[in-house]
Amino acid sequence: HYSTSSGIAGVRERTLIAVKPDGVQRRLVGQIVHRFEQRGFKLVGLKMLKASEDLLSQHYHELKKKDFFPYLLCYMSSSPLVIMVWEGHNVVQTSRMMVGSTNPAEANPGTVRGDFGIHVSRNVVHASDSVEGAQREIQLWFNHTELIDWDCCDHSSTYEL
Ligand code: GDP
Ligand code: MG
What residues make up the catalytic site (predicted)? Predict the structure, then answer.
């Protein structure tokens, strides 16, 4: 049984995943995209951009008072990001599991951060942490015309409904 109140709408959940500058520089984009495809999620938006500090401070508004905040903005704006929207059942929670703990030193092997990272300041990927947060972040980074509604031909091999 889907754990959502809205039945089929549960497979329409969306999250924002970003390959951070270190991930792009280290040529990890393909491997990260591959993990989400392989799991069965559907890609509904993708672009590469160099983010402004203004956009990044909106994205990370909850962290403005942290002492590492200036370093975070500097790192995140240092070179391009690849940002994506992935869709599927429970995608927000499952992505957080696939990405691993914020600090790669504590992230489990098999997670993106646990396989590709070593220090909290360079943790390779971003993943939204709640359904509401994902909605806010998707609106911040994507125009609605950049998000594609499409039918995946293996849908019935992935889901019952
Ligand atoms: P996330 O949701 O797992 O990405 O973690 P948070 O929302 O708590 O923090 C956002 C981002 O800030 C992290 O992914 C790191 O890039 C960065 N960050 C968090 N804690 C630290 C820290 O102690 N030092 C530094 N340099 N960066 C940090
Ligand atoms: Mg976060």
Answer: 126 (pros-phosphohistidine intermediate)
Give me the interface pTM, i.e. the ipTM: 0.99
Do 13 and 48 meet the contact criterion of CB atoms below 8 Å apart? Answer: no
One-letter amino acid of 32: I
Closest ligand to C-alpha of residue 99 is: 1
Is 157's pLDDT higher than 70? yes
Which distant-in-sequence residues (6+ apart) come within 8 Å of 124 by Cβ?
Answer: 19, 20, 22, 23, 26, 28, 32, 104, 112, 113, 116, 117
Q: For atom 26 of ligand 1, which residue has the closest CA? A: 121
pLDDT digits (tens, 9 = 90+) for 62-101: 999 999 999 999 999 999 999 999 999 999 999 999 999 9
Cβ atoms within 10 Å of 70's Cβ, excluding its own: 10
pLDDT higher than threshold 80 for residue 44 = yes
Q: Which two tokens stand for residue 26?
A: 């280290």
**Catalytic residue set:** 126
Distance 157 CA to ligand 2 centre (A): 32
